[in-house]
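Researcher: I'd like a candidate sequence for this fold, 850 residues long. If you have to choose between options at a position, lean toward the conservative one.
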């Protein structure tokens, strides 16, 4: 063998064995390189170091090879999935992570406060400029408009195309002096000079920048704001929920960042807003407003971006420049007398007319989603963590903050307000509509209860009636019907009055001791007293015609009662004798229970007779029922009478605010009538219905008990009086159902009187008295409880070393095994490729050289 052969000849014993044993002719390449007829997979299985891949060799059975193929495929797939999942987690799903830090600050600049009054246009101002415009705007914002009303609005709205809406808006909003009555920091420092007007997506707002450094947290560093909301001067329907929107911003924010929504606050409140801490978020440049170099864009604001896009969308669809647009910001920011007559430059499109503002702009503003691409987030976002506490306004505390001429200012404001309200149709004034709604609910109740009470025509007449000539339901309307029927039954049967006397004064005293015996749980009791009472009761039956009560009962009914008493005596004695014969004292209690059951069963007919007597001879429930009806009738007549309450007579919004305020104020003459009616509210809601149910129950029990008492007389309830009572049950049921329907009426709800008092307070606020302050003023206090800050910075969540460590630590076994297999496969394929290439080259070599 040559040196060349020693160098390149593989040491594969299988090839040499095959050559010597089979004695087949082999090719030059097989002889030189040791090639055999083995498949590529078999060679790979022989050469690989991986245990699992060796089982793919053809020497193993087919099912075994398939099983290992599936297992190896699953392992390889899992490896690929784990690698892809780890990489996608860091590179795609969570490319950023947050770093948090907390610090206590020694000092901090007081934040900027922005307050926007939802009432952007005062009705009194519009009335002084154009009364017809005010009247039309009131009809525009009526939510109850019907289709024909909307068509009429669309026809009339074109008459106002020549009106400059921008000038109306500019002239009609509140000034700083109107809105902010007092601005004070700490105890003495005034901050009214730090208030400026800014223009935002919410309209004209007021920015308060105290420019004060807070050195110590606590109430002593409180910013106190007293605001005059003037809720009475709102154009009806234009503002669904009167109030203000208060927002807190970092003092370093530019005006363009002051556009976020805040918290809604209402008038008549003392609102305390403690600032607990500050949360600062710094986003990664890839997630916020930054240029291609990764630098932050100066003066960028996401809110302004969205505002601009929405305005562009309006301009595109409406072909005009709407009223609330960023292009008109300079016109309102820091507005002063010098800017009143200024013009807006750089606006190529014409201003939207009132028609376009109503038909086009409002529709687009109601669309929440913007079709254009989303605006980027702000790179730095600072939020103040606050809690809002609300209480009733303290007029004593507020009085210290009011200016000296405040009463005169209120007089002027109210005078201007009534000039405008006189031009508004009464059906569109919110307070008038609220009062009319209260009146409608009250009238609904009064009319319904009167309709029910009108059927009680004979409520005050006491006389007998002929049951043959009346309907069954007259038993509900006429108090004489049931009394007559019960009296007729009692007179014809002549048993119940006397039986009641016999039961109460003869029978009952003799059975009370027996009841006491049978209810006892003691094993040894002196039963002789009970036996003595039974003996006395038995002896009394020897002369029943002499017994008190029993002697007045007719013979036939008397015998029935005597039989019931004899049965009671006999069953009780028999049980007692069995008891006495008992030797086993442990069974005493069992005998006691048995005798008690026997005693009650025998006594039951006698008790039933007593119940029948009670129903027929007494009319207490019926009397109570009709007495309640009488009381209700008197109260309702007082309410709707000549001297009744006017609130139950209001029609078509014809309501005098001043008169309403006087009648239903704290000392109002008609307020007592309302309280008297509501004081008896329980009568309508439950008491009368309960008495009606008791009457129904008595009638049912009367019919049932008579059948049980006269056990051998099946025709006892065929009397015409009993049939009448049975049919009257349905009438009482229907009457109760009608009363129950009153519960659904708003007047009987507990909040009706509260709503009335609220409307009275509102009408009282239309004066210069303290009620004006109670409704229209809002006192806001802001202070720091802690001077601390939480900083959150978004950074890349990975680097190359972290990614490799994650992959290696999580799926190292899979990756290591797979990489080893891949490396072996590459080496194997490379060697096979080299062998094939060399084989072709050696075909031209003389075989003798080998």
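Model: Candidate sequence:
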């Amino acid at each position: 063998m040559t040196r060349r052969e020693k160098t390149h000849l593989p040491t594969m014993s299988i090839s040499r064995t095959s050559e010597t044993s089979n004695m087949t002719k082999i090719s030059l390449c097989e002889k030189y390189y040791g090639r055999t007829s083995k498949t590529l997979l078999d060679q790979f299985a022989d050469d690989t170091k991986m245990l699992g891949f060796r089982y793919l060799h053809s020497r193993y059975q087919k099912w075994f090879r398939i099983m290992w193929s599936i297992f190896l495929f699953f392992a390889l797939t899992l490896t690929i999935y784990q690698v892809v999942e780890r990489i996608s987690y860091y590179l795609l799903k969570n490319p950023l992570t947050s770093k948090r830090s907390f610090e206590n600050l020694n000092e901090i600049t007081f934040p900027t406060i922005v307050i926007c009054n939802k009432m952007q246009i005062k009705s009194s101002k519009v009335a002084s400029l154009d009364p017809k415009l005010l009247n039309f705007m009131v009809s525009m914002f009526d939510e109850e408009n019907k289709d024909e009303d909307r068509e009429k609005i669309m026809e009339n709205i074109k008459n106002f195309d020549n009106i400059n809406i921008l000038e109306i808006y500019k002239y009609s909003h509140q000034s700083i002096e109107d809105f902010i009555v007092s601005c004070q920091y700490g105890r003495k420092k005034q901050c009214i000079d730090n208030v400026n007007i800014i223009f935002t997506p919410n309209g004209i707002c007021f920015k308060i920048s105290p420019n004060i450094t807070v050195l110590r947290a606590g109430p002593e560093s409180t910013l106190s704001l007293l605001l005059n909301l003037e809720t009475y001067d709102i154009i009806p329907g234009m503002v669904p929920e009167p109030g203000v929107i208060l927002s807190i911003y970092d003092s370093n924010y530019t005006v363009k960042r002051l556009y976020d929504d805040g918290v809604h606050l209402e008038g008549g409140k003392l609102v305390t807003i403690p600032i607990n801490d500050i949360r600062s978020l710094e986003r990664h440049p890839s997630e916020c407003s930054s240029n291609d170099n990764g630098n932050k864009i100066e003066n960028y604001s996401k809110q302004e971006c969205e505002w601009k896009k929405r305005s562009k969308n309006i301009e595109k669809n409406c072909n005009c420049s709407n009223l609330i647009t960023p292009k008109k910001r300079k016109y309102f920011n820091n507005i002063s007398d010098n800017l009143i007559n200024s013009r807006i430059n750089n606006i190529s499109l014409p201003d939207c007319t009132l028609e376009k503002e109503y038909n086009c702009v409002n529709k687009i503003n109601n669309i929440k989603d913007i079709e254009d691409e989303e605006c980027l987030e702000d790179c730095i976002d600072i939020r103040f963590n606050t809690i809002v506490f609300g209480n009733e306004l303290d007029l004593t505390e507020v009085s210290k903050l009011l200016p000296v001429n405040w009463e005169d200012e209120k007089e002027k404001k109210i005078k201007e307000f009534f000039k405008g309200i006189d031009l508004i149709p009464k059906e569109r004034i919110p307070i008038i509509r609220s009062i009319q709604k209260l009146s409608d609910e009250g009238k609904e109740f009064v009319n319904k209860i009167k309709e029910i009470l009108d059927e009680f025509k004979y409520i005050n007449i006491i006389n007998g009636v002929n049951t043959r000539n009346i309907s069954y339901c007259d038993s509900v309307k006429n108090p004489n019907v049931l009394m007559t029927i019960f009296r007729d039954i009692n007179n014809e049967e002549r048993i119940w009055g006397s039986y009641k006397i016999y039961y109460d004064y003869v029978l009952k005293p003799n059975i009370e001791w027996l009841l006491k015996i049978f209810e006892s749980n003691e094993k040894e009791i002196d039963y002789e007293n009970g036996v003595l009472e039974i003996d006395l009761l038995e002896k009394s039956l020897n002369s029943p015609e002499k017994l008190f009560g029993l002697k007045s009962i007719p013979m036939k009914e008397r015998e029935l009662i005597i039989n019931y008493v004899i049965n009671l005596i006999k069953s009780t004695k028999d049980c007692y004798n069995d008891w006495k014969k008992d030797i086993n004292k442990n069974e005493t209690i069992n005998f006691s229970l048995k005798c008690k059951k026997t005693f009650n069963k025998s006594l039951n007919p006698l008790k039933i007779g007593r119940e029948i007597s009670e129903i027929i001879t007494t009319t207490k429930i019926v009397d109570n029922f009709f007495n309640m009806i009488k009381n209700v009738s008197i109260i309702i007549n007082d309410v709707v009478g000549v001297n009744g309450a006017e609130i139950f007579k209001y029609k078509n919004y014809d309501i005098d605010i001043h008169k309403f305020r006087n009648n239903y104020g704290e000392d109002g003459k008609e307020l007592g009538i309302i309280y008297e009616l509501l004081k008896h509210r329980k009568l309508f809601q439950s008491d009368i219905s309960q008495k009606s149910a008791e009457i129904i129950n008595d009638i049912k029990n009367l019919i049932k008990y008579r059948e049980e008492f006269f056990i051998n007389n099946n025709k006892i309830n065929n009397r015409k009086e009993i049939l009448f009572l049975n049919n009257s049950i349905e009438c009482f049921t229907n009457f109760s159902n009608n009363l129950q329907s009153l519960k659904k009426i708003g007047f009987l709800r507990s909040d009706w009187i509260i709503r009335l008092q609220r409307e009275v307070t509102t009408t009282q606020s239309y004066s210069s008295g303290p009620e004006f302050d109670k409704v229209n003023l809002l006192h806001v206090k802001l202070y720091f409880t802690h001077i601390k800050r939480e900083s959150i910075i978004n950074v890349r969540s990975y680097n190359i070393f972290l990614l490799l460590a994650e992959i290696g630590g999580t799926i190292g076994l899979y990756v290591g095994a797979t990489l080893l297999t891949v490396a072996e496969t590459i080496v194997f394929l490379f060697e096979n490729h080299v062998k094939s290439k060399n084989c072709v080259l050696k075909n031209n070599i003389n075989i003798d050289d080998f």
